[in-house]
Predict the structure.
Amino acid sequence: MKIAIIGTGNVGGALATVWSRKGHEIALGVQNENEFKGKNLLTNPNTTLNSISEAVKKSELILIATPATVAIQVSKSLGETNGKIIVDAMNIVMGRGPIGFTNTSDAILANTNTKEVIKCFNNMENPIYGNEAIDAFMAGDSKRAKSLVRDLALDAGFAECYDVGGNDKFTLMESYAFFWINLAMMQGLGREIGFKILKR
Ligand SMILES: NC(=O)c1ccc[n+]([C@@H]2O[C@H](COP(=O)([O-])OP(=O)(O)OC[C@H]3O[C@@H](n4cnc5c(N)ncnc54)[C@H](OP(=O)(O)O)[C@@H]3O)[C@@H](O)[C@H]2O)c1
């Protein structure tokens, strides 16, 4: 799949790396081609360096992994997104997010012309724990997009990517990430914790 990565730091960089190794075509979209986080990503296979709008133009799916505070600015910088899928990995942390929105995905929908935004990978660690993999979760209205995003989550090493519901669950996905942050940081469990669904 042709994937644009906007935000090439911890989250964007980790996903760009695993997806490039799975054979996806990765277009890094950066603000300044001379100075950006994750320059080492250019040694990954199938990976090119682009301006943000060029990366979007080349791609079918766009991952946004920038701070939530710039969600509106980044959305406006993407250019034409009609017919493209946007995957939102951002989190509003301690109330710092796009002004006027309870979640970053609604800010993307309001400031781009795609109708297909999926919130996923907003709780993103190395998914492998010994012999087991943790689960991912996603929300958004587009069933076509969720099917593709599930495949990408499995490519990234998650055991499963559960469908949490439609766009009305975007804010719940923000709370889910904050639930992890609370346990890891505020309650002191540390970053090496992850969620997995058990069934019987
Ligand atoms: N770290 C985690 O454990 C984790 C887990 C899940 C989700 N998240 C969420 O994922 C997002 C990214 O986190 P991170 O830890 O990967 O951040 P990070 O390492 O600080 O990277 C942020 C990236 O965003 C880019 N950026 C900043 N402002 C931009 C703008 N206006 N336009 C385009 N790009 C811009 C930066 O560009 P430059 O390269 O030019 O500096 C950098 O590449 C956050 O919303 C965070 O809450 C984080």
About this structure: Strands lie at 2-6, 25-30, 47-51, 61-64, 85-88, 116-120, 128-129, 132-133, 136-139, 161-165. The two ends are 35 Å apart (CA to CA).
